[in-house]
Amino acid sequence: MEFLRWNLISSFLLLCFPTLSLTSRLFSPVDNYLIDCGSAAVSTIDNRRFVGDLSGGNELPLSFSGRWFSMRNENPVPGLAPIYHTARIFRSPSKYAFPIRDKGTHMVRLHFNSFNSRGFDLGEAQFHVLVDQFVVLSNFSLVNSENPRIMEYLIRVDAEELVIMLVPTEKSKIAFVNAIEVISAPKDLVPDTAQYVSSKNVVNFDGLSNQALEVVYRLNVGGPKVTPFNDSLWRTWMPDDKFYKPNPQSKRLYFGGRIKYQKGGVSREVGPDNMYNSARLIKSMNASVPRINMTWQFPVTGGYKYLVRLHFCDIASISIGLLYFNVYVNGNLAFEDLDLSGITGLLASPFYADFVVDTDSFGALSVNVGPSNKSIPYVVDGILNGIEIMKLNDSRNSLDGEVCAGFVLKSWPRGNSGFFLTLLAAICIVLSISLVIRRRVLGLGDSFPWSRLPVDISDEHVKISGLPSQSK
């Protein structure tokens, strides 16, 4: 019933304020490839045209190579989007090459849905996927998966084309994909600097925009699911209930007013209105400030660094200068005495902060928000609107598995990968050597250059994710 109420409110607001849905369609990416694999038709999903990769013509300028055939699901589940009715099947390492006009970060979404047809069970396929020099999927399979899977990545592209390669494992001999999206991202989506948070200190993490990122979680805190139709980058924001640790002293809040995006600050492409206008919060109801935290816990794959992007928007306070709170990531203090209105200068104006953390072998990640020593009685003492968690590639340029792209291709028994294999293997060797040399020269215990910052972080240290300094 609660989700029904949220959906009714959202629908009502969209009817009352049609500009909200109009805004979500204003972003026009330079590179915008929406491919319906194994199809010759055009499929429309959320007002977006997916062009069949068998249609040919100038509308689809990508190139393709490899041994393949197409398949169609003759008995799709009712209501299943048409892009999941077909698939392109690969019998050898095969690639899609997308011409790139707008160099920089690109969103790559891979759609998978298994079905049986012509004696093939796609649920038994096992394969690897490479995006340029990055291994994004290793020994991937949809065994026992009844629903479509969408894998989303943020990849920086500085070349003339982006290459997606699918490599069957020797065990299964086939790979497949149902649909592909390659979209140039807004320039402010992935900044170059975040804050690395550990038990010892907080330091700069530079070079973030050069990392490959896999979107693991994207949550609308306190609110309902936000669908691609209501997001300017066609993202899905899931409710946070599954990951939120129940706390009777916190509550949800929905805001019916206007989210105030400011020039030079957070844009709608970073976070949509429908995410910022809901939240969970802690509020003091008497003369004492509650000493509790709101807690979210996430299972993740251990051994990787993760980008934790937290979205804030003070939609609860009655005046500026009343809300102060602390933010913890993995139990470590990431931001002390966060004063949102001191950063944005306004209420209901969004702000986000990026933190990079390590994970242990247990594969657990947590976020906590709660009152600080500056919190005030009788007002809001903590708020959070959205959470995004993204995995960073490791030193092998891998987001999955323990080998680099060259070794993935070398594992293919037929040895017909040619120049592409040789090039990727050389890249892996050069990266490994340069990493060792860099660590010896700089004397670092890790592979990234960080400079120290004080633990008591000021607003200036996160201005890359908020507003320019003059608005503080």
From TrEMBL:
Domain Malectin-like: start-end pairs: 35-391
GO cellular component, one term: membrane
Membrane topology: Single-pass type I membrane protein
Transmembrane segments: 418-437
Signal peptide start-end: 1-23
Keyword annotations: ATP-binding, Glycoprotein, Kinase, Membrane, Nucleotide-binding, Serine/threonine-protein kinase, Signal, Transferase, Transmembrane, Transmembrane helix
Any Pfam family matching the protein: Malectin_like
GO molecular function: ATP binding; protein serine/threonine kinase activity; transmembrane receptor protein tyrosine kinase activity
The keyword Chaperone appears for this protein: no
Keyword Chloroplast: no
Localization (cell): Membrane
Domain of life: Eukaryota
Name of the protein this chain belongs to: Malectin-like domain-containing protein
Natural source organism: Acacia crassicarpa (northern wattle)
